[in-house]
Amino acid sequence: MDTRIITIDGPAGAGKTTTSKMLSKKLNCVYVDTGALYRGVAYEIQQQNIQWENDEKLAHFLKNLDLQFVLQKGEFVLQSYGQDITGFIRTPEIAMLASASSAKPLVRAALLGIQRGIAKIQDAVFEGRDMGTVVFPDAAFKFFLVADLFVRAQRRFDEMPEAKRNLETVEQEMSRRDTNDYKRKEAPLKPAQDAITIDSSHLTIEEVVQKIIKIIENT
Predict the structure, then answer these.
(1) Is the pTM above the cut of 0.85?
(2) Which fold has domain 5-213?
(3) How far apart are CA 198 and CA 6, in angstroms?
(4) Whole-angstrom distance, CA of residue 38 vs CA of residue 179
């Protein structure tokens, strides 16, 4: 692989998104939120009322899916059928549906080409849950971010609109998603054997990014 690919995997709320965005800017490369792809699939499943647990209907839906990242002002936005859906995929309902539907091999296979296509043409930081294990097993640098459940729930709680805030509910949903992601048969959430694990529980994003940069520069 001629481009430099950095993967950052880990559970929800570990700081992957903010870390990846800051890191990509400091390294002058693009940031790719692969989780957005799965949320995009979940969004369209919900919008089109797809019976996604039926493989035949899921395959037909995926065959006609028009989901792609479009580079705008140095950052990717997610478009579905030509419409920007980036602002509609961050609800707890979409997150849970994305976690469940992403366990389907059909879904993962459908999105693999999009992700690898980006990596062929430019240096990038890929954020996700199986970037280092499945999508880019030969990536130059692999990191796995973790953090205590309560810390992760608090972070997600702080990001939510005030009217929808409920820390206990956020923590319960995050714990349930952790269970789904770690125990699923298809591409379970786990660090690659050669990934470097960083616990962000008591670190600022800047400290996490500096630690990653130091590792990259000294390798």
Answers:
(1) no
(2) Rossmann fold (3.40.50)
(3) 14
(4) 17
